[in-house]
Specification:
Number of helices: 3
Number of strands: 0
Shape: elongated
Largest sheet: none
Strand content: under 5%
Length: 68
């Protein structure tokens, strides 16, 4: 158990520590992109069909038109 914790600690220290080959600011962009929709849900684009109120879909367009 101690060996597993020691290995995990060294890996995390290698990724995020002061001797890391990746700077701390390089982790900000990927994390921000991953959590963007949770942080700013009103800014994220809507999913397909979520904001189409009143528009007809393909199934509605194929119905014959009423004759006068």
């Amino acid at each position: 158990m101690d060996n597993a914790l020691d290995v995990t600690y060294r890996v995390v220290e290698g990724l995020f520590g002061p001797e890391s080959s990746i700077p701390w600011w390089a982790w900000v962009a990927p994390l921000l992109l991953i959590f963007w929709t949770m942080l700013m849900p009103s800014v994220a684009p809507a999913t397909a069909g979520a904001g189409k109120k009143g528009k007809k879909g393909k199934a509605d367009k194929k119905q014959p038109k009423k004759k006068k």
